[in-house]
Amino acid sequence: MTISNDQGVDLTWYKARRSNGSGACVEVATAAGSILVRDSKDPHGPVLTYTKAEWDAFLDGAKKGEFDSFCV
User: Fold this and answer.
1) Domain presence at residue 72
2) Quick check: is 70 in a domain?
3) Strand order across the 26-31 sheet
4) Count of domains in the chain?
5) Do residues 54 and 62 make contact, with C-beta atoms less than 8 angstroms apart?
């Protein structure tokens, strides 16, 4: 599900500590029990919305290396 980033909700966005400041990363926030993800280069662009269960499944897969083949 995608929601507009300009819905008048004041969110606190976070990005990885290892982010190098180039703007090529994602930012994450929480709202109403959902996990929100946006492109740091386009902070007013679309926002992806995930349930906590979906986010937990993604993080579990990332920690287990399931997405390592996508790394260049």
Assistant:
1) no
2) no
3) 2-3, 47-50, 34-39, 26-31
4) 1
5) no
**Residue pointed to by tokens 């819905």:** 7
CA distance 54 to 31: 15
By the 8 A CB rule, do 21 and 30 touch?
no
Full-model pTM: 0.76
Identity of residue 12: T
Reported as a single tens digit per residue, the pLDDT across 2-60 is 454 555 567 899 988 777 766 678 899 999 889 999 998 888 899 999 999 999 999 99
Amino acid letter for position 6: D
Range of the domain at 50: 2-16+24-65
Question: Measured in Å, how far apart are the chain's first and last C-alpha atoms?
Answer: 27
